[in-house]
């Protein structure tokens, strides 16, 4: 392809920015259209994680390989920093041979992932068009990464200041996080606490209050200047990555970790592969089928399996993790394809016939996370 050809990208999320950075650094004129006035406005300074268990290659090495520099908060958390608490209130410590995940911040603050990627895009020469929502795309090829369009899972939480030491705690208990989990992330005086749920969205407040009570009964933590936030995640039972002249990336394509929602790597990798398909005249669909589909399908199989563990299964799972000398290889096995997971995926694919939108929440006066943030998807 002509290196001077202009490429249109819609959506300045991690996927769109990753694609833009790679294309601009390789001589393309990149026009990136963002309907908001700034990146990261979906988020509230909350902490999230870049998981580091599903690949043999360390996540920071993957970022370097796909042309991304770490100019944002990216703090490693290993077994010594991580605690898990099951429905029996038993605390479980794990052992890891490397960081379990890298903590990042989302939003508009200077050190967020979103702002760091924006700075890299601007330095590479990307033309970012703010407050512009395209009605149609006329280019020969374009990349679209406009984020989730429906709520398959939601999160309800708070960000706050605290004097507590750096720590990560994961809670699994259907009484506080239906078929999902709650989590605490503390880093350098700031913290995020949230509960995630895959069903019963209209009762988010009840589950959050229960989760907060579980947190306070588990550790002694001071919560100062708390601010509420909410979010939602979207995945398909099979990603849709290309149509006509449009390449879809991230959650717009349906890429998300269906098990626990660690989808940022999916977004960035899909953006990278979309850029590679343009630069190297490769088939984007085939790149996704080879590099992204296997893990995605396994994550949907894992979602189906996890949904049938219930509280007894969560306790057994945590106890098994505590006995391992290193949880990383076991988690990697569970996140990568196998004969058993391929069979489970076929079942899960039939189980998730449509996006798991909680219809009970979509009424006129509902104020749940989904109805506040997802009305554009109705």
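Sequence proposed for the structure above (378 residues):
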């Amino acid at each position: 392809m002509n290196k001077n050809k202009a490429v249109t990208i819609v959506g300045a999320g991690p996927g769109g920015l990753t694609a833009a950075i790679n294309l601009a650094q390789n001589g393309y004129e990149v026009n990136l259209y963002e309907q908001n006035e700034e990146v990261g406005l979906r988020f509230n300074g909350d902490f999230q994680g870049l998981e580091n268990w599903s690949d043999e290659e360390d996540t920071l090495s993957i970022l370097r390989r796909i042309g991304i520099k770490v100019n944002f908060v990216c703090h490693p958390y290993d077994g010594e920093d991580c605690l898990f608490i099951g429905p029996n209130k038993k605390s479980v410590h794990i052992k890891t041979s490397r960081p379990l995940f890298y903590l990042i911040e989302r939003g508009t603050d200077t050190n967020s992932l979103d702002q760091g990627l924006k700075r890299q895009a601007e330095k590479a020469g990307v033309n970012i068009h703010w407050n512009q929502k395209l009605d149609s795309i006329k280019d020969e090829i374009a990349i679209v990464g406009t984020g989730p369009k429906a709520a398959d899972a939601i999160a309800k939480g708070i960000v706050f200041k605290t004097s507590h030491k750096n720590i990560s705690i994961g809670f699994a208990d259907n009484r506080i996080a239906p078929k999902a989990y709650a989590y605490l992330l503390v880093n350098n005086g700031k913290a995020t606490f949230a509960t995630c749920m895959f069903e019963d969205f209209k009762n988010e407040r009840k589950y959050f209050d229960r989760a907060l009570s579980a947190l306070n009964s588990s550790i002694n933590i001071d919560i100062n200047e708390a601010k509420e936030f909410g979010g939602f995640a979207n995945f398909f039972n099979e990603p849709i990555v290309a149509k006509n002249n449009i390449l879809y990336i991230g959650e717009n394509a349906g890429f998300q970790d269906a098990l626990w929602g660690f989808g940022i790597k999916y977004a960035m990798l899909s953006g990278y592969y979309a850029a590679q398909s343009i630069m190297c005249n490769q088939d984007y669909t085939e790149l996704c089928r080879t590099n992204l589909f296997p893990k995605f399908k396994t994550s949907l199989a894992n979602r189906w399996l996890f949904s049938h563990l219930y509280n007894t299964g969560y306790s057994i799972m945590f106890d098994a993790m505590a006995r391992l000398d290193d949880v990383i290889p076991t988690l990697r096995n569970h996140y990568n394809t196998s004969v058993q997971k391929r069979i489970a995926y076929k079942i899960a694919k039939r189980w998730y016939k449509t996006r798991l939108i909680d219809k009970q929440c979509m009424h006129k006066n509902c104020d749940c996370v989904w109805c506040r943030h997802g009305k554009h998807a109705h």
